[in-house]
Amino acid sequence: MRLNLKILYIFLIITVLSCKTKAPFRYSLQKSAIADQSMVVTAHPLASEIGLKILKKGGNAVDAAIAVQYTLAVVLPVAGNIGGGGFMVLRMADGTTNTLDFREKAPGKASRDMYLDEQQAVIPRLSIDGHLASGVPGSVAGMDAAFTRYSQLKDFAALIDPAIALARDGFQISQQQADGLNRTREAFIKLNTTTPAFVKNTEWKAGDLLVQTELAKTLTRIRDQGAAGFYEGETADLIVAEMKAGGGIISHQDLKDYEAIWRQPLVSTYKEYGIISMPPPSSGGLALAQLLKMVAPYPIRTYGFQSAEAIHLMAEAERRVYADRATYLGDSDFVTVPIRSLIDDNYLKNRMMDFDPNRANASEMVGAGLVTPVESEETTHFCIVDAAGNAVSLTTTLNGGYGAKTVVSGAGFLLNNEMDDFSAKPGVANMFGLIGNEANAIEPGKRMLSSMTPTIVTKDNEVYLVVGTPGGSTIITSVFQTILNVIEFDKTLPDAVSLGRFHHQWKPDAIQLDELIELSPPVKKNLLKKGHHLKQRSNFGRVEAILRRADGRLEGAADVRGDDDARGF
Ligand code: GLY
Description:
Bound molecules: glycine
Oligomer: single chain
Structural class: alpha+beta
Number of strands: 19
Distance between the termini: 58 Å
Shape: globular
Number of helices: 18
Strand order of the largest sheet: 1-18-17-13-12-9-8
Largest sheet: 7 strands, antiparallel
Radius of gyration: 24 Å
């Protein structure tokens, strides 16, 4: 009896101690990796792992990208998606390049003034929340097109099965994900016709299992029927029924008509580097080319990393580029975008004629809507290089965090709120504070302007850097900084993707500083003296990158700002 009591006592102590010391659930993240053959960098360790498995199985970078896209649709509901869209930039080992546009499109019933009231004022949040905010999704058509053209494995089920298993059986959410789901709970309840898997009765905690049974069924239909498993049949019926239930306008015809488009990459140069990026309907590639060409004539390397001189030069280039973006950019299938003129050397030289190394040029201020973004700028980017040297840079999005926050009942996936990327009213800012013009006005079937900037940098005719990031309007400037961090400021790749960042977008007229930036008081003083406004704000961007090192090996780096993860073999 005495002995039994003693054993019970010891057992109780061990139990109490082990409860006390049990660490909260955390994924073990690899923020950087070096490998001989292949590299995958994504916003989630499970996606990186699955991408790598596909490569080890003999898939190429495009196969791995398809598997990662579907995995992120399950394990990263804030941005990964089948209900959104995106852009893929690729450079194959033989040197050929291509881009795939699977951006969402305005539904057939969309109209120019659909978000305006009778007084022609923008109705707050109508293009951001719920059914009417959603464009016709493009991701499934995009993955289908990529598979048809580039798959080496030629086994679509092998690419999507891991995602189906994760949706069906569940995966453990991270602390950041638990916080995001808890923060969005009220919106999920308000903006859904049935209770989605993202809502539960108690608070989410790190390590909780997120099971998405309906999403697993939708992914299974896509596996078995290809794109028709989404754009036709049961899934299409569920989408259209959801639209009817919630006042949305996407029709069967819109879904049937959706096509992803292969487009000529936007190719430019920076010194001895080739820059391969996304053309319209993204503004990203064009804006990046403009920025790099504008700063190229200046000795930015001697100015030094985040010196007042370098920040001033870069911010002044950014001011001019975002002004061009607001005026000229839109879907080139609908409007004429003067791409060649905008990246013409003389044009850009003229654009910088009034650059004064000692003074900031003031952006013309417009009163309404010039606000610092209040929405999260969620999107997600991943980079893959395979053993043959094929490279994929892919950015995909629902637009805001969890998109429209509306889940298609019975189909289990979130709808995007990409319609907000259109200019609801010329001159009025969207949720990123971006102003658009006629070129980006809403028209049925048109693609909304994007800032996504999936990019591949080449050197000596080889892939040198694969890079991209989420971050709404800040995407372009984060990619710009990362490239300069590597090429001009000799930062290590992990530093180049993770060090603090700044951003200027013409309007509002301020250099926005993220939480990780460390500017010394003299640098800040110098910038203020030049006439800049400095605005501290929350972190932006989650840059992922892969670098071909001088020794030929691949280095991957994942931003410290999230659960991002780099792994190779
Ligand atoms: N939805 C963010 C972008 O496409 O720029």
